[in-house]
Amino acid sequence: MPCIICHTHTAIDQQQLQQAARELSQLTARMLNKPESYVMVLMKPNADLLMSGSNDPCAYLEVKSLGMDESRTADYARSLCEFIEKHFNIPVSRTYIEFSSPSRHMWGWNNTTF
Prior knowledge:
114 residues, alpha/beta, Macrophage Migration Inhibitory Factor, four-stranded mixed beta sheet, two-stranded antiparallel sheet, globular
């Protein structure tokens, strides 16, 4: 039920991308205190992104989870920015993150909603 979509400006080979996706899945589960079996990660490398009028490497992440602790989003942002910097060599100042916590009836899975 947590879903994280990671758009990056940089290209990365398939093996590194799969490793980054696995680590991001684990990080997301730990960060949100959810079972990893519910985490979905979508990696979108080499995206056409422009930030602050510059084509320098940047990233945009979308984090969606039911019951997200909104008081912890600054902590989540720090962890995610560090992850992006480590795996994609993108400065933390060039990463935007959108957090959302939809209502349970707005999240579908397994022929129903939560």
